[in-house]
Amino acid sequence: MIFTATQIAGILNGEIEGDETVEVSKLAKIEEGTKGSLTFLSNPKYTQYIYSTDASITIVDKNFEAESTIKTTLIRVDDAYKAFSQLLEYYNMVKMNKAGIEQPSFISETASFGENIYFGAFSYIGDNVKIGENAKIFPNVYIGDNVTIGDNAIVFAGAKIYSETIIGNNCVIHSGAIVGADGFGFTPNEKGEYSKVPQTGNVIIENNVDVGAGTTIDRATLGSTIIRTGVKLDNQIQIAHNVEIGEHTAIAAQTGIAGSTKIGKHCLIGGQVGIAGHLVIGNNVKIQAQSGIGRNIKDGEAIQGSPALGYSDFNKSYVHFKNLPKIVDRVYKLEKKINNNE
C-alpha cells in the first residue's frame, strides 16, 4: 500500500513540513530509513539519525527543533510514539480489510455466519458451525462440526479448530495453532500396552484472547479446557486437557502445562516453563523462564528454578551455586588440615 504525506497527516491530525506529495510504502527504523519508507523519532537518543536518514517521511513531536538541514519530510504531532502506533493500527486495519468468500472453499449447508464475513480459499467450515459478524477466516483453515466463533474473530491461515470448540469475540488464532485436539489420555493394561481414553469434552476460549502460532490447546477428557477472557498465549505453547487459565494471564513461548492444572488471573509465565498436572497456581503469580513447577503456588508469589524456589531464595542460592567449586576446594583444604592435626 502507498500513502502520501497528506494522507498520513490526515490520519494523524499532523502538520506537514516538506513535500506534501511524497509517497511511502514501507516502515523502517530511523537509522535504517530508505527512500519510500516511513519512520518516527521519539527517543532523544536517536535524534542524530534524523539528519542522515533517507526515509521519505518522519513523524516527530511538534516541539522538535532541527539543528541542521533535514532531507526527510516531517509530520509534526503531539506525541510521535503514540502517533506511529496509531498509524500501525490503521495500517493493520486496512491490510485486514478482507470480505467475501473465496473459492474453492467448503461451507456446510447447516453452517451460519454474520455480515461482513471473510472465508479464504480452501477453508473448510463444518456442520452446524456458527460464526459471528466481521470474522475473518483465512485460507486453509479447518473448522470442525459444531464450532462457535464470535464477532470480530480472526483465524489465520492453516489453523485447525476441532469440533465442539467455542471461541468468543475479538479473539485471534494464529497460523498453525490447533485448538481442540484430543488430550493425552491412555491407560496401560497388564501387558504394558496402552488403550486410549476417549476425550469427550471441548475447549472454551472466552473473549479477547490471542493464541500464538503453533500453540496447541487440547480438549478436555470430560467438561472443558478453559481459556478465560484476555489471556495472551505466545507461540508453541502446549496446554493439556482440562487446564483452566485465568483472566488476563500472559504465557511466553514453549511453556507446557499438564492436565487439570488451574492457573489464576493476571499471572506472568516466562518461556520454557514446565508445569505439572493437577496443580493450582494462584492469582498474580510470576514464574521466571525455564522454571519447573511441581507444587501449588500461592497468590502473588514470584518463583524461579527447577524445581522452582521462591524468587528471592533462588537469587540468594545462586550466589553459592556459582561459587561452589571454590567452596568445595576450601572444604577439602579444611578437612586436610584437620586430619593432619589429629
UniProtKB/TrEMBL annotation:
SUPFAM superfamilies: Trimeric LpxA-like enzymes. InterPro entries: Hexapep, LpxD, Trimer_LpxA-like_sf, UDP_GlcNAc_AcTrfase_non-rep. Keywords: Acyltransferase, Lipid A biosynthesis, Lipid biosynthesis, Lipid metabolism, Repeat, Transferase. The keyword Lipid biosynthesis applies. GO terms for biological process: lipid A biosynthetic process. Belongs to the transferase hexapeptide repeat family. LpxD subfamily. This is UDP-3-O-acylglucosamine N-acyltransferase.
